[in-house]
Amino acid sequence: MKKDYNFGYTKVNSKQKTKLVQNVFSSVAPSYDIMNDLMSLGMHRLWKKRFVEIMDIKENDIILDVGSGSGDIAREILKENLLTNLYLLDLNKEMLFEGKNRLKKEKNIKYFIGNAEKLNFKNNFFDKYTISFCLRNVTEYLLSIKEAYRVLKPGGKYCCLEFSTPKSSLISSTYKIYKSKILPFLGEVIAKDKNAYKYLSESIDLFPSQEELRKNLLDCGFTNVETINLFNGIVAIHTGYKL
Ligand SMILES: C[S@@+](CC[C@H](N)C(=O)[O-])C[C@H]1O[C@@H](n2cnc3c(N)ncnc32)[C@H](O)[C@@H]1O
Q: Which site from 88, 141, 161, 223 is most exposed, i.e. has the minimal number of CB atoms within 10 Å?
């Protein structure tokens, strides 16, 4: 029997999900940065800063940023002023183009169109694997975690920043109204695509909780798995090591 996948609350097959998600990112690419600032009131910048601090980058690290989009994580990494080799990968050429364009003055960055589910990199190659607000969009997200494990060196670190489940019921109910009403409204007015932001809201609802994702990471072989909640768990940073 064929497996169903969630494209928001709509059930689709695997190919359809990947295509529909990519349509969303092609549509929002030009307004992606302004929407991020508006939707989070600039908070996404603080979350990404904290995420990069937690990555604990070292001189000469080889870093893979999956679902790199418009390059926010790369820009934050570059602020650390360390010599690193950055590999940015995204399945969507419009989003990768946004990133490439913003980072055009930077050296030591390589760009790849590719799918998190099947990485075209050799085993044991990277010191750090980062994935920020992308995992939720990956059709076979468990495959992507297995691939992360494969391409990391022994001792390498997995770092995921993603929407998660708020811990307080009061915040949870307020956030629910924000996601279902305000997000699609902002999407319609600013990005001219209400459905893309309806998808965003639904994909957040359906994404595994902190505890489920922790179990997934352990099942895929990661050790010392940790979760750091930001904003009461609206967003969480998940880390783990390949030993
Ligand atoms: C919400 S954006 C996040 C961009 C950036 N990492 C950030 O934090 O601002 C998600 C990105 O993941 C990419 N993406 C979605 N599914 C993917 C997949 N299966 N493999 C690689 N990239 C994917 C999208 O094209 C999009 O650029």
A: 223
